[in-house]
Amino acid sequence: MSKISNRDKILMELLKEPLTFTKLKEKVGVSGKTLAKHLKSLKDEGLLKREIQGKYIVYVVVEPQTCLQMRKEFWNKLLALYIVYRGCLTKETLELFSKIFKALGKSIRDPELEAESTKIMVRLIKIPEGLEKGMGIEVPENIFKKVKTVKLEKPKTRGRRRG
Questions:
Q1: How far is CA 65 from CA 39, 40, 123, 146, 160, in A?
Q2: What is the domain range of residue 90?
Q3: Residues 8, 12, 13, 18: what is their CA dihedral angle, to the nearest 10 degrees?
Q4: Is residue 141 part of a domain?
Q5: In whole angstroms, how large is the CA radius of gyration of the chain?
Q6: Which of 35, 44, 77, 136 is least surrounded by Cβ atoms within 10 Å, i.e. has the fewest?
Q7: Does residue 44 lie in a domain region?
């Protein structure tokens, strides 16, 4: 029989009901330091979140998404990337985007039955440092941050220029 990890115990308890830190610590049977470490990790991965219920903070598992919901989210994120970067993409890359949009659009418009019912828990992962450099690709820290534009002013001149 395989041993259940503390992370899995935490998720199993939170799938039953939202719990405070103290109640979760009692149910899982780990130290406060260990629990805090796992909760932070699970929160950073997007698997759970903290909510305020009355005067208590409870931990809640993020609702799993269906494959169809994930496709729609992917469509929106991909479209945002396309809009931002389309001016600097090659013809070949633009053609690939077109194929991806057609295939993804079809899978959203006419999804298979499982795509509407199968739920998946999404886990965020961090790209290891240096990986993108090894591939010759620069990954922006947050591609969805708004770009700040700075208006450059011409230097002010005094009077007319004489020559």
A1: 21, 21, 11, 27, 67
A2: 65-128
A3: 110
A4: no
A5: 24
A6: 136
A7: yes
Record the tokens describing residue 112, joined without a space: 């298979």
List, for residues 103-144, the tens digit of each pLDDT value.
999 999 998 888 888 777 666 656 556 555 545 555 455 444
Domain contains 1: no
Check if the beta carbon of residue 27 is closer than 8 Å to that of residue 19: yes
Instruction: Give how many domains the chain has, as a whole number.
Output: 2
Written as six digits, the tokens of 50 are 């903290």
Per the rule left: phi > 0, alpha: psi between -120 and 50, beta: everything else, 102 is: alpha
Q: Reduce the DSSP state of residue 127 to 3 states and report it.
A: coil
Residue 156 has a CB neighbour count (10 Å cut-off) of 5
State the residue for tokens 């929106």: 76
Report how far apart, in Å, the C-alpha atoms of 103 and of each of 82, 85, 114, 119 are. 16, 20, 17, 21
Question: Which CB contacts under 8 angstroms, 24+ apart, belong to 80-83?
Answer: 80/144, 81/143
Kind of pairing, strands 65-66 and 56-61?
A: unpaired
E strands, 54-162, where?
Answer: 56-61, 65-66, 119-120
pTM: 0.52
Whether residue 19 lies inside any domain: the answer is yes
